[in-house]
Amino acid sequence: MENNQNTLAGIEVYKLAPADIDHLFRRSGFNGNNLSPFRYNAEQAAVSSPSEGFKDIAGNPKFQQMARQLLEPNLRIEFNSGGGSAADDKYYALLVAESQGVLAQFTDSEQNILLVLFPDWEAFLNWWAGAYASKGMSGYQKVFPSAMEVEVLVCALHCIDIYRRSYMESMLDYRSGVNLTLTTQDFVQLLKRSLGSKDIRWLLPTLFEITPGLKNSSIALKPEHIQRVAELGFLTDKEGIITLAERSRIMGTEFITSWMGSFACQAMALINGEERSVSRVFMAMTAFTNHLISFESGGSGETRFRHQASNAQELINTLGQWMKALQKAIGNPAAGEKDAAQSKPEAPKKTEKNSAQNSAPNSALNNAPKVKFCGQCGTEIKPGKKFCGNCGTAV
User: Fold this and answer.
1) Phi, psi (deg, nearest 5) at residue 188
2) How far is CA 374 from CA 30, 160, 167, 217, 330, in A?
3) Cβ atoms 30, 19 nearer than 8 A
């Protein structure tokens, strides 16, 4: 990010000192809310002076809009990145109901606050995909055909990590072959060690370390979960001996050779005056595809997931539909107007269904009254309709 204000294709960038936030509160008159990353410190404001960066933003006609988005947002999306060799990072996208603009907030290595104002979500997504997503390829083979319990995902990622571990061990031991077998007991013990390690060089710990709130999910591994992973082609399990199967070898090799890192995000919204977690997403990027995993709560309180493999454009389409649902949930009228004004490409068909709390991309937010969306493509479903008017899926 460049210092102070810069404009590139309609994107404005500002740099503030940490103490400028208190002056932003005083100058704007906003009190802040629980979704804002910042809190007002009156004592600090009384003894500090604003920086030159603050003077730049204070003289901008969009000052009140940016202050509103930063201090009293209606929607906050927290992004965490890391995993593999990727650098750890945390930033926010902040939106308000009355505007299409997206304010991204970063913190640099010197704790300065970088504000990037995008004219709309589409501009943010195009920038974000160019910076973080893999270009990927179309036609990646479907791995998980439907919504499944999160324990199935845990076992599958564990299989991928075990293959990576065995491959590296074979290199260190100068062996040409990779050991693909272990006992069921060792499989479970390694899984426990993996989750407890918090080591984000590995895929499974990365999932739990960077996905906000996922550690609070109840994980109860059962024999049927291992059986389900076997049905998906990750392993075979005979008489207490697990052998990694073709899917583990293929995806293990994919992550050995081309894992670019991961990101996770959680959307928090003010709906009817209440702060709610409305969506949670994890993505692992490789040279082959973007593995997008979204989470939802089942009817019995269990956590379920859906997986979608997308190239960059498919990912943009999917997250664009996701944002429409979020904007409608916070009462942004422009979201509906934009739908009517232009026809959007159909999103790839591996997206999320509605959920009780943490809805996924292309899902309806059940907390938004009288609004229902197709769980397959994200199109809004009119009251009384039994099929999606866009893709024909039964709802």
Assistant:
1) -70, -40
2) 37, 32, 42, 26, 19
3) no
